[in-house]
Amino acid sequence: MKKLVVAALAAAAFASAAQAQDVKAMTFEDFIVDAPDLVGQVVSVPCTLGFPDSQAIHCGGNGGSLIIRVATMKNREDLRRALKECEGPSAFTDCKVIVTGTYDDDYGLFYLDNASIKWRRDEPSSFNADDIADELNGNTK
After folding, report:
1. Which backbone phi and psi does 19 adopt, to 5 degrees?
2. Against a cut of 0.90, is the pTM above it?
3. Residue-range domain boundaries for the chain
4. Which CATH class is domain 23-136?
5. Which regions of 1-141 does DSSP assign to beta strands (E)?
6. Please, which contacts does 4-13 make with residues 24 or more away whose CB atoms are closer than 8 Å?
7. Strand partners, 111
8. CA distances for 49 relative to 17, 19, 112, 115, 116, angstroms
């Protein structure tokens, strides 16, 4: 009986972890519209990085922006790269990315925690959800 309970608990924990890892890939516009329903979920959206500093990197797209919390970033080299490349006019060409992280809404400000960044050079300025899903699954065109 004890083994059965342990096995059931392990299965439930695994299922919960798998659900927590589900990534919702979407356009930036869909993110802005659906944001109220996405709190606590892992999202992946295309955007342009700008205004990086020691606390935040702004990630903008059509209809608004979100803030990447620097303290929770998965890869510190992404912060280093953003600080070097994403300030000023060059950000509009050099800093197009797909950012993935856990979405949080703090008094109407959109935040991403535990963010990871995939840099997209020489790509169109707008990506659709299928392109993002392909990128997340390792498929490149």
Report:
1. -65, -35
2. no
3. 23-136
4. mainly beta
5. 23-25, 42-50, 56-61, 64-69, 96-106, 109-119
6. none
7. 67, 104
8. 30, 28, 13, 13, 13
